[in-house]
């Protein structure tokens, strides 16, 4: 060493960084240096914290384990790594003449000195612990400096560790070693004189990885079951443990003699029984890290069987009872047959008897006809394992209450309370008390007669209580309500939150107020912690007296919030209600809708005609869809009224009829397209004073005056014809008389004929 004892050297370093404490040693100029010991002491500590002898591994004080490391061979310095995950230290030399490399905690370094490159082409293997970092350095020599390229199992090289200095001579650093990094890595160095290739394989040390987990299986009874479980790991000294539910298979009494675990992790269960069904878990281990696990379920199918059939079946007298057949089956039971006194039981012959789905018989009211010996035979898809043992049916009196508790009891907190309850029956019943819902933490017991005794009432005693009387036949229940006065309020229930975009409406059902007036407060906060909410992340809002709801605003949209309600009275506060989580609504996303347009009808005119007022118009100039119909409106005063709202969309004219005389009318028309009504058209006015009188029409459509004229004309013509006929007859008679006087009958007859034809 240089100097016998020098003054302390002051080394300054930042917290978290690494520091090197130097120790200069002079080596002989020729030959190898003899082995020597280097010890490092810390002031005030008599025992060295670090001892290094030759090439043997150093001894490090347990308090400094992992925090001290030897420096280079030429300089036995002490390296103090940082506590940070990213740090760089001087690595101990692996070979004389090797170049010093940066190294990180948990890292495995492969150093190939220049004179060893003659072995390129051979494949070696190096190990690294999972979770660390791997540093590979490749040296190449030649007349020209060759660049180096790396190729690995699916990796893009290089992946350089950011905290370590970059090395420009072909080193490869892999961050955070995982099992996916295992495989062969090849370094290729080339120059104008040629190239050299070296391949090495990375083996990652770590806990096993299950590559073939077990799968659910279903087997029949007495068959063998086989679960596979294959894992990979390095080192490969794998052992497998199998568990049934939470118990090691070798510790389960009925199973340990029928199981075998093979070297590859396979579990074999010989001659399975129905009791073997359940969850089986495989856990491979190689003593590194945390072992993984994988589970699968075993289902054992077997015919239906009867288990634990009681020798005596008790059925109550006067009330409904059951005759049950305790069955186990996989697949489930499909049929249960009953025998009574050795003969098949025909249930339909017994009034009030019903066969339930599980095979039990329900008796509405048992009588002496039910007495006898019963057996049952269950069936499923695989058949049956046989008939049940015989069971004798016995009728017994059910229990009945001789003293019933009252409907309600009120008592102050801290006082004693007795609630009576008594029952009788054959056999004599046992009486027990229980609280409905949340159990009571107060000391209470049942006295010999069945009375409930609570020595010191507490808040938890408030609520519904039941007195239960039970014997082998049946159980009966009587209820009462206990109100404990003088406590803090009970927690609100049925909290309901309806969220909007920036607000939420919170409502609830108030709990018992403890005998005093209570008020409420709503507590809320975001599900994700926010800095602006402070250390507790909850805000509270008071609720107006007498209200059981509150609107909470100033919330952020599209955010998850939690809500709870707290009650308080003069004696204290309740526990918080249930916590309800809701999400506020997001901002509405407005999407442009297609423009739907319909303009008003155009050029409405009104013309007087004999039939009425003829209204005509032009269709709208613009409309997105065909016009469905038109609406014609009119008004005489200020109010518009509908004249007709069913004018077809293809029409452009309309007759207004039955108008009042001496009245001024105004008309307008509107277009209807789908559900959209246009603005009204222009207004057209007309007076009904000058309108031609509207004649009355008959059913055939003719005006009455015209019809009257026609009828009059017909009557006139008929009268004229009749008059002409009478006149002709009169003239003929006169001629006949003249002819008789002239005694010329033929001429008279001929002339008469002519006169008759003349009309």
Automatic annotation (TrEMBL):
Keywords: Disulfide bond, Immunoglobulin domain, Membrane, Repeat, Signal, Transmembrane, Transmembrane helix. One of its GO terms (cellular component) is neuron projection. Gene3D superfamilies: Immunoglobulins (2.60.40.10). Signal peptide: none annotated. SUPFAM superfamilies: Fibronectin type III, Immunoglobulin. The keyword Repeat applies. Residues 488-587, 597-691 form the Fibronectin type-III domain. Pfam families: fn3, Ig_3. SMART domains: FN3, IG, IGc2. Residues 1-205, 207-299, 303-394, 399-483 form the Ig-like domain. The chain crosses the membrane at residues 706-731. This is Protein turtle B. It comes from Pygoscelis adeliae (Adelie penguin).
